[in-house]
Design goal:
Length: 500
């Protein structure tokens, strides 16, 4: 395991360093001249300088040991590092060459080459880097076992890639094999190594891997959280305790905002950074012209919007799962700092009390313990978002509204409908009023041949479904039940909204 070497070249006299990190790249002395030169990333034009500093790599702690059956041979090219850094720190045997279209060498400094490497690594989300890193590890362990020379690993020939995929097919899930392939491809791209494949053959191998995946790799069905489940879990917790107060507030906020659990928790304690994770200062209140209030949370960085982030929101609910009251209690019990993690809780360390960010493992462990205390089967974290989607659909919100609330850019959330018959049950009844179905389940856009309820035909049908979805939701919260005949409360709500 070796140090990263100057200008990304191998140095046979380099001292072996078992703590590879991205900082070793950033802190490498520059070989560029001290004054701006052509081709230097400190060049200036009209008083403007390029080469803005890149975000500092977070401290990740010591890398975890390899699994006994997945340990690569010692190599200066592949230092033992954190998985998130592996695609950058693991080097191909040949240095990238920079040439113009005629094949002539381009004058590129070590600093520029390093910056290009680091910038390319920022094109991938952390979760993607994690899974791709595993694929790169599997690829090199495979090459080690068959003593594949370094110069044949990058660029990897199409035949080597095909042999590798056929070897691991049946040992991993089809999705894992596909991600592992993409990981090796990303490693080639980041280091400027040509990537040539036989696409038809690889597509066939990926399909085969899906069919050959072992039964043990099939993901257990992720059951949805329900309001009843949350009420039972909350009843087994003590909202006056710092950790419980934070977990309850995080659970209800994640559920009613249809958010991913990872958007309101951090993976590990050292991972919290104000520019990446939601803070107390990222919370605000909004009110529309009808006086309806929502609480809005700006998540600085999400999987879909890694640069600008996204807003999620919820409205006050009833009962013990009301996110407004649980969040208010958390802020009272834990008083997290304004620039600290939103769900940070007070934790005693020796004689000191510190504000500790709520990690995903800590959250799931506490929920699991409370579920077992309530004689319930613990559920997985993704079940919160699934449960939120189902809850809002069961309340009668239009599909397009739920899609917007959950921030789905595609119809991927519709997979939940196919797995939960109760969502479709109301729409399949023979005596259900057809106009009600048209209100709650319209086309995405629809043009009408005549005026409808006094509105022009060009009005977007999704607006009608949105209004009726709100109406149905209000009736649900009021305790009314829908049926073949509209209840008085439902009729009154329609009249209030102008549908007379």
């Amino acid at each position: 395991m070796g140090a990263l070497l100057s200008s990304l070249n191998l140095d046979p006299d380099a001292q072996i360093d078992t703590s590879g990190s991205l900082e070793s790249l950033r802190e490498r002395p520059s070989s560029s001249p001290s004054s701006p030169q052509p081709g230097s990333n400190t060049s200036s034009v009209a008083g403007r300088q390029w080469g803005a500093p890149l975000p500092a790599a977070p401290h990740r702690g010591a890398p975890r040991p390899y699994r006994s059956n997945l340990t690569p041979y010692l190599s200066l090219l592949r230092p033992h590092c954190n998985a998130l850094d592996r695609l950058v720190l693991w080097q191909p045997s040949q240095k990238r060459s920079f040439r113009d279209m005629s094949g002539r060498p381009i004058n590129v400094t070590d600093e520029e080459a390093t910056r290009l490497l680091l910038v390319l690594s920022h094109s991938l989300a952390e979760s993607t880097l994690q899974s791709y890193a595993t694929g790169l590890l599997v690829f090199h362990v495979f090459c080690d076992t068959r003593t594949t020379p370094e110069d044949q690993r990058a660029p990897a020939s199409p035949d080597l890639i095909s042999i590798w995929l056929s070897t691991i097919a049946g040992s991993y899930s089809g999705a894992a094999v596909k991600n592992y392939l993409y990981g090796v491809r990303a490693w080639h791209i980041i280091h400027g190594v040509d990537w040539h494949i036989k696409k038809p053959e690889l597509d066939a191998l990926v399909r085969a891997a899906e069919k050959l995946q072992p039964s043990s790799s099939k993901r257990k069905k992720r059951e949805p959280y329900t309001i009843a489940f949350m009420e039972a879990v909350i009843a087994k917790m003590d909202a006056t305790l710092p950790l419980d107060a934070a977990v309850i507030a995080c659970l209800t906020t994640s559920f009613y905002s249809a958010a991913r659990l990872g958007e309101f928790t951090v993976p590990r304690l050292e991972d919290f950074h104000p520019s990446k994770y939601v803070k107390v200062s990222d919370m605000r209140h909004a009110r529309d012209r009808n006086g309806f209030e929502t609480t809005v949370f700006h998540i600085p960085r999400t999987k879909a919007e890694p640069v600008n982030g996204e807003d999620v929101y919820w409205a006050r609910q009833t009962g013990t799962t009301d996110p407004e009251s649980t969040l208010r209690n958390h802020l009272h019990v834990n008083a997290p700092p304004n620039d600290g993690h939103l769900f940070a809780y007070q934790h005693r360390r020796g004689t000191k009390v510190i504000s500790r960010p709520l990690t995903k493992p800590a959250f799931l462990a506490r929920i699991a313990a409370a579920a077992k205390a309530a004689d319930l089967q613990p559920l997985q974290g993704h079940g919160i978002r699934i449960g939120s989607t189902l809850e809002y659909l069961l309340r009668g919100l239009a599909f397009e509204v739920v899609k917007t609330l959950g921030r789905w850019k595609s119809d991927a959330f519709l997979v939940y409908l196919r797995k939960h018959a109760e969502i479709m049950a109301p729409y399949m009844q023979a005596d259900l009023h057809q106009e009600f179905i048209a209100y709650t389940m319209p086309p995405v856009r629809c043009e009408y041949t005549s005026f409808w309820f006094g509105y022009p035909r060009s009005l977007d049908a999704s607006l009608y479904s949105y209004i009726l979805g709100i109406a149905a939701d209000r009736v649900y919260l009021a305790g009314s039940r829908w049926g073949p005949k509209a209840s008085p409360a439902f009729t009154h709500t329609l009249t209030t909204l102008g549908f007379s």
